[in-house]
Design a protein that fits this description.
- It is a single chain.
- The chain is mostly helical and about 600 residues long.
- Helices cover about 60% and strands about 0% of the residues.
- The protein has a 3-stranded mixed beta sheet, covered by helices on one side.
- It is globular.
- It starts with about 30 loop residues before the first helix and ends with a helix.
Length: about 600
């Protein structure tokens, strides 16, 4: 099942039964059988995902005891147990009659069952990750595997306020070393079945692994020392303990993984898509269904993207001419706009400080406009933060981390400032609308704050087509609220963002269903968006290891727009955009077919 840890990573696991109610303040007057099942599933997941418990700041009493020093099990046996457990959830939910359920219970049954089915569909192929996270064909890549997410998780999520916290950090370092070993073993097992990433993915992953292996000031050691000192603990002693584990356990595990990938390089191809894997076409369809929560075929998604790229290209062309960029292809003119000195921040401390200040101004501006389109706004605050310098080299350009459900941590919109040239001024309003408000922050924070729905729906489940579709739709809402009225260059940034997501539908399906090469995908994306080749190359490599994920943004956005137009047409003067947005947001993340049921119900009642 797709679990919402953050938008950057889904930590996975499986667990055992604990009949404690996790709903807490959202507890129902009478707990239905559906709520009992939903709470059990949430508890199963949390008990075997200690990282999730840390992220959600779960009370240890609710999940069987302290978890601060534990990590999730990444062995093949644990993965098989997860897949078995999800199958049991599906059977239990399917056998529970839906007749007579309250509206909330009906939605809970349908949403949780859909999540389980979409995830479980990939388990039958017998490789990669399925469990109740996203279906990843490769256990380890430049974007998957504990080596990618664990250091950042520890630095940003693991607290060090007490001695127990610091001891937990040390314990988790032992666990991280074991995760590396287990994932390496699973990669070797999959390789024997012909499941190996493309050569260029192995090479990119090896660069990252070597960077970690050669790091003389590892984050896992240095940040512990820093946090321990701030907490008034013996920083030197904890640093020494951490360094000893790093040298004695983690570095050898890194070396073994590096040697394993070096070995894989001898017998791999440059074939980019999962079509090359055993039953690859079927596998891709399962991935596409998981990410879009639809039954759309690869051809349908491909053609949707192509049509949108053409129509958006016409709008971009007109916008560029308005700014005086009249000659050359869209790609050529966008490349010139990207280096126009009028829109570039200085790549120094002063320039980076100005960029952050401007984004905060944009957030305040959008907030002032939101009451015109939203009846309900999140209570959780939103902070704009720079991606930590120790992770910026391999981190995405911008991303959102959700607030802690207990209010101890605000929502955070991160922007990577390794090079300010990556962020011309015209690109920032749209990024802010997507990652901040009314995008991911509105959607995720409002779900967390929702009353009367189970914990698993308000805090845990994540459907890509809904969540990323909402964020992309939010860019349109920002446009409708007048964000670009006096900013024609900013509106080109908005149109380019749309074209970028449309092109993703084309290249993802091209790579995985139509046997496009990596270079074909790069060329198409460049012509559609004008983005730099280096940035596009990184994007294409991402699509190669997350099949289907890149399509969910536009598929979701198109569906939300369709449902809005459907409601407007049916309700006429009774249609209220604020009510529509409440209907979309206040029930938490859901598959697109369930969202359509919610909107159809709104159309029937008009309220």
């Amino acid at each position: 099942m797709s679990i919402k840890i953050s938008r950057r990573a889904a930590l996975i696991g499986a667990g055992s039964f604990c009949a404690l109610n996790l709903v807490g303040q959202n507890a129902f007057a009478k707990s239905s059988s559906i709520n009992v099942i939903a709470d059990k599933i949430a508890n199963d997941i949390l008990r075997d995902s200690p990282e999730s418990c840390t992220t959600y700041t779960i009370s240890p009493a609710l999940v069987g005891g302290p978890y601060i020093g534990k990590v999730s099990d990444r062995s093949l046996a644990a993965e098989n147990a997860r897949n078995k457990l999800v199958g049991e959830w599906i059977a239990k939910l399917s056998k529970t009659p839906s007749k007579g359920l309250s509206k909330t219970d009906y939605l809970t049954q349908k949403i949780v069952l859909s999540s389980a089915k979409y995830s479980h569909a990939a388990a039958k192929f017998g490789f990669g990750d399925a469990g109740y996270g996203s279906p990843n064909p490769y256990i380890i890549s430049q974007l998957t595997g504990s080596y990618v997410g664990f250091p950042d998780f520890m630095a940003s999520q693991h607290p060090v306020k007490t001695k127990d916290d610091a001891d937990g950090w040390i314990s988790r370092l032992h666990g991280f070393a074991q995760q590396l070993k287990d994932e390496t073993a699973r990669s070797i097992s999959d390789a024997k079945k012909g499941i190996v990433p493309p050569k260029f993915i192995l090479e990119t992953s090896l660069k990252q692994l070597h960077a970690s292996y050669d790091d003389k000031s590892p984050v896992l050691v240095e940040i512990l020392a820093k946090k321990a000192k701030e907490a008034g603990l013996d920083a030197d002693a904890y640093k020494a303990k951490a360094q000893a584990i790093y040298n004695g356990e983690i570095l050898p595990a890194y070396k073994n993984l590096i040697d394993t990938f070096d070995g894989f390089l001898k017998n791999v191809t440059m074939d980019a898509g999962v079509w090359k894997l055993p039953k690859g076409d079927e596998y891709y369809k399962a991935c596409l269904a998981y990410w879009t929560t639809t039954n759309k075929t690869p051809d349908e998604v491909h053609e949707l993207g192509k049509a949108l790229v053409i129509s958006l290209g016409k709008e971009i062309d007109a916008g560029l001419k308005q700014l005086g960029y009249n000659e050359g292809s869209i790609a050529d003119r966008m490349a010139k706009l990207s280096v126009d000195p009028r829109y570039i921040y200085a790549n120094n401390d002063e320039g980076k400080e100005k960029l952050l200040k401007d984004i905060n101004g944009m957030v305040a501006d959008i907030y002032s406009r939101l009451p015109n389109a939203f009846a309900t706004l999140p209570k959780a605050k939103l902070e704009v933060r720079r991606v930590p310098q120790y992770t910026e080299a391999g981190a995405p350009g911008g991303y959102y981390n959700s607030p802690a459900p207990d209010g101890s941590r605000p929502g955070a919109y991160y922007i990577n400032l390794r090079d300010t040239a990556a962020w011309p001024k015209w690109s920032l309003p749209t990024l802010t609308a997507h990652e901040g408000v009314p995008g991911h922050h509105n959607q995720i924070a409002l779900a967390q704050e929702a009353k009367g729905i189970p914990f698993i729906r308000s805090k845990m489940l994540w459907f890509g087509a809904y969540g990323e579709g909402w964020a992309l739709y939010s860019e349109t809402v920002a446009d409708e609220l007048g964000l670009y009225e006096n900013d024609p260059a900013g509106r080109i940034g908005y149109l380019q963002s749309m074209a970028f997501r449309a092109a993703r539908c084309v290249v993802d399906t091209g790579i995985h269903a139509k046997k496009w090469t990596k270079q074909q995908a790069i060329d198409y994306m460049h012509q559609a968006t004008g983005d730099e080749i280096a940035a596009i190359t990184t994007e294409i490599e991402r699509y190669c290891v997350w099949p289907g994920q890149a399509t969910c943004y536009m598929v979701g956005r198109v569906k939300i727009m369709e449902l809005r137009e459907k409601a407007k047409k049916a309700l006429g003067n009774k249609f209220n955009i604020k009510t529509f947005h409440d209907k979309v947001l206040l029930q938490g993340s859901m598959p697109l077919d369930v969202l359509e049921e919610v909107i159809d119900d709104y159309i029937k009642t008009g309220a």
